[in-house]
Design a protein that fits this description.
Layout: H1 19-32, E1 40-44, E2 59-62, H2 68-78, E3 83-89, H3 90-96, H4 98-107, E4 111-117, H5 152-158, E5 163-168, H6 172-184, E6 189-194, H7 206-209, H8 214-217, E7 218-220, E8 228-229, E9 235-240, E10 245-250, H9 251-254, H10 266-273, E11 279-286, H11 292-299, H12 301-305, H13 310-315
Parallel strand pairs: 1-2, 1-3, 3-4, 4-6, 5-6, 7-11
Antiparallel strand pairs: 5-11, 8-9, 9-10
Helix pairs in contact: 1-6, 3-4
C-alpha cells in the first residue's frame, strides 16, 4: 500500500508545491511494483526536492549539493542488490552536480534519477537556474537572464544515457506509468519531471500543463504506437525530410505519414526532446545495456565473493591488504 511508504515526518513544502504530487506518485509506484522498503534507498543533494528522503519510509541519505549521483554510485556499487533512487533538481543536478550526473549517465549505473525541473532555484529564494529561459527575471537577474538554458533531455542523450523519460507533477496516471518503467530498467533511468514552483516561478509550464488544453499540447508516447494526440487523436507527428524536423499533421488525412514511436531510435528521441508543442511525454528513449555494477563485478568477481558488512570492517583490523 502507498501508505506503507509514508513516514511520520510532517511533509513541509510550500502549500501548492508540485513536490507533494510527485511524492504521492512515487509512494504509489513503489507499492504497485512491490518494492521492499528494507531494500530501497533514496539519495538526494540540496534543494527543495532534496527533502524527499525524509518523507519516504525507506533508507535515505540527504547529502551535499550536487553530489547525490556520486554517493548513490558508491552505494549501488557496494551493494548492487539495493534499489537506489536519486532525487535532484535542475539547480542541484545540472549546475554544481552536472559533472557527477554526467559520469553516472555515461557509466549506466543502476540508479533511478528523478530530476525535478521548475526552472528556478527555489530553496535559495528564486535565482535563475541552468534550465531557466532567457529573459527570466529573478533576484539574480532583475533585468532578465541572458544565459542560454540547458535542455535536460539533450544533456542526458549527449552523455550516452540509455533511458530518458518525462512526466508532469500533476499527471498521476502518466507519472505512475513512467515510474513503473523506471523501476524495471537495468541501468541509469533518468526522468525529467516538470514541477511547478508556486512561489518563485508559478505556471512556467502552463502552456502545456493546463488540463483543459493538455490533450492538444502533450504527446504521450507508447512504444510501437503512432504518435497521435488531440481530443480525438486527430493530430499526429511526422518527419519532414526537407527540414529534418518533426511537424504536426492532420492525422485524419495523413495517418500513413504519422511516425510510430520507437524507443530505441536515438535520432528521433533528440527531435522529440526539442519538440515544443506538443511536448513529448512518457518514455522517449530506452536502449538496454549492461549496467556499471554488473560490468564491474564481471571483471572483479572475487570482490563480490569477499563482500563484508559494515560491522565487519568497523570491528576488524585497522588496516587490510588490497590484492
Amino acid at each position: 500500500m502507498p501508505k506503507d511508504f509514508a513516514t511520520s515526518q510532517e511533509v513541509r513544502w510550500c502549500p501548492g508545491c508540485g513536490d507533494y504530487a510527485i511524492l504521492k506518485a512515487v509512494q504509489k509506484a513503489l507499492a504497485d511494483v512491490g518494492a521492499n522498503p528494507a531494500n530501497t534507498a533514496f539519495v538526494s543533494g540540496i534543494g527543495c526536492a532534496a527533502r524527499f528522503p525524509y518523507y519516504i519510509e525507506t533508507y535515505g541519505f540527504h547529502t551535499i549539493h550536487g553530489r547525490a549521483p556520486a554517493i548513490a554510485t558508491g552505494l549501488k556499487l557496494a551493494n548492487p542488490e539495493l534499489d537506489v533512487w536519486v532525487v535532484t533538481g535542475d539547480g542541484d543536478g545540472l549546475s554544481i552536480g552536472g559533472n557527477h550526473l554526467m559520469h553516472t549517465l555515461r557509466r549506466n549505473v543502476g540508479l533511478k534519477v528523478l530530476l525535478f525541473n521548475n526552472e528556478i532555484y527555489g530553496l535559495t529564494k528564486g535565482q535563475y537556474s541552468p534550465t531557466s529561459r532567457i529573459g527570466t527575471t529573478s533576484p539574480s537577474s532583475p533585468r532578465g537572464s541572458v544565459d542560454a538554458p540547458i535542455s535536460p533531455g539533450q544533456f542526458v542523450m549527449g552523455c550516452g544515457a540509455h533511458f530518458f523519460a518525462r512526466g508532469v507533477d500533476t499527471d498521476k496516471v502518466g507519472m505512475s506509468d513512467v515510474l513503473r518503467q523506471v523501476h524495471a530498467f537495468t541501468g541509469t533511468a533518468f526522468v525529467e519531471i516538470f514541477q511547478n514552483c508556486i512561489v518563485y516561478n508559478e505556471d512556467v509550464f502552463a502552456n502545456f500543463t493546463e488540463r483543459k488544453t493538455a490533450a492538444d499540447t502533450q504527446l504521450h508516447l507508447k512504444h510501437g504506437e503512432p504518435m497521435l494526440f488531440g481530443e480525438n487523436n486527430d493530430k499526429g507527428i511526422r518527419f519532414n525530410q526537407e527540414t529534418w524536423s518533426l511537424e504536426v499533421v492532420d492525422a485524419t488525412d495523413s495517418l500513413n505519414e504519422v511516425l510510430v514511436h520507437d524507443e530505441g531510435n536515438a535520432i528521433v528521441a533528440r527531435l522529440l526532446i526539442d519538440l515544443h508543442l506538443p511536448v513529448a511525454m512518457g518514455v522517449i528513449y530506452r536502449q538496454p545495456a549492461v549496467s556499471f555494477e554488473d560490468a564491474f563485478y564481471a571483471h572483479h568477481p572475487s570482490r563480490m565473493e569477499r563482500k563484508k558488512s559494515i560491522t565487519d570492517f568497523i570491528r576488524g583490523p585497522s588496516s587490510w591488504t588490497v590484492d
